[in-house]
Amino acid sequence: MRIEAVRGGGFDLNTTEGRLMARQLVAIAAYESGHKSDRVKRITDVLTVAGDRRPGAPRTVLNEYVHAKEHAEFLGSVVLQSKIDMERSIRAVADLVNGIITIFESAASAPMSAMVLTRSAGEIVMRFCYIYDPEVPPARTLLRMAAFQIESVEDNLRTAEAFGVHGEGDANDAREQIPTMHEFFTSHGVERTPDSRRPEFTVNLRLDGATENVKFNATDAYRRYLRVGFWDWALGSGATHGRGWFLPNVIGTFDEAPFMDRNEIAVTVTLQILELATAFAVAAGGHTGADTDDYLRKVHLRRLGVTEADRENDGNAVSHREYGDRVLAPRFPMGTGGASFAGPRA
Is residue 173 domain-resident? Predict the structure, then answer.
């Protein structure tokens, strides 16, 4: 896709005005949400006030489920910790987006960096969508929250072991902490399946007949939660891992220019961020019962503006409600095809 202008006005990223336009583009997802002064405050409001007070909303159902359980206090602490985890995660997304803005504000060319930062932001948002999936019953939501917490502790051991002899002290500390953490969960009704080769690591968790894998599959999450653009994971992978099929698009040589110019890269990154903003709003609104329609409309208006110059006919653009409903699955392989969402591993 080659786009020379946005809303009829050309912009050159080698100029101050062009960089300002790029900054405005990549800031849309954060800026237009309506929480300009404190984005995280709006997120906190959505996940607490709105969710707890909307009858029938998944957040309310989860709250009722927890309070009816024998181990209500413990399960409530899992939910509270998940709020903390996800707030920190979304703050990390804001940090990554600020990094992208900085790249496009500068005179330097760093297309790989922008794509990698977008990929990182995407994986965080996909985890949020996965945990707060409104189609998931409360037991599975709790297990997904718990899985993130257990994996975070177990990963301390994996990371320490990667340092070899230099990480032995931290590895020993982790080996002492992991059994205590496991016992804390299992003594409060959450069953775990240990890894057959390394029982200190957990394969899946079970509660009230529901089972969830501890390992999160970001590739499948992209396919499930991005209504359009679920192939973005492939672009991000190409940038993150320096794939040979991807590099010529954004990195040139002494004799050859890259296939994409800076304008096209800015638009590509912007569209990816808008897709993530949409997925985040759908998950947050669906979980809490909050009305995110106006936010989704604003995001879609910006999406239409970004793509306006590439339109080849005078037909009417679809609305934000129709957007995504007309998309056909791509013909190329899509990793596991979302198979991990069909059910837990045996």
Answer: yes
